[in-house]
Design brief:
single chain, mainly beta, cytoplasm, 1 helix, magnesium, PRA-CH, Phosphoribosyl-AMP cyclohydrolase, 4-stranded mixed sheet, globular
């Protein structure tokens, strides 16, 4: 069965959450948004492409920073309303220069920073 990006369940703005996970370690790196065209571009190019809500434009991860996400696998969840991209990440995934966007934990009611920016 061939895959058609239009069969995914997008929100009212035409977007679907995309979780990026390191293919080697399983670490969750980030969450961003894709529209049907970003899904298609990702699958065609092998470079993960998101939709930037703030810029209202496509965002090829690493295009300007060099922190590229090379697609390893593309998965659709059971409800077809979220996708998981497993990637080979070059450099930090987070715009704060950290390996992951999920660098803050809440433990015993306190925020704890789990990682500092990469050098």
């Amino acid at each position: 069965m061939s895959f058609d990006p239009s069969t995914l369940k997008y929100d009212a703005a035409g977007l679907i959450p995309a979780i990026a996970q390191d293919a080697a370690t399983g670490e969750v790196l980030m969450m961003a948004w894709m529209n049907a065209q970003a899904v298609a571009r990702t699958l065609e190019s092998g470079r993960v492409t998101y939709w930037s809500r703030s810029r209202q434009s496509f965002w090829v991860k690493g295009e300007s920073s060099g922190h590229v996400q090379e697609l390893v696998d593309f998965r659709v969840d059971c409800d077809r309303d979220c996708v998981l991209v497993t990637v080979r990440q070059t450099g930090p995934a987070c715009h704060t220069n950290r390996r992951s966007c999920f660098y803050t934990a809440v433990r015993e009611g306190e925020e704890v920073e789990l990682m500092t920016p990469m050098v």
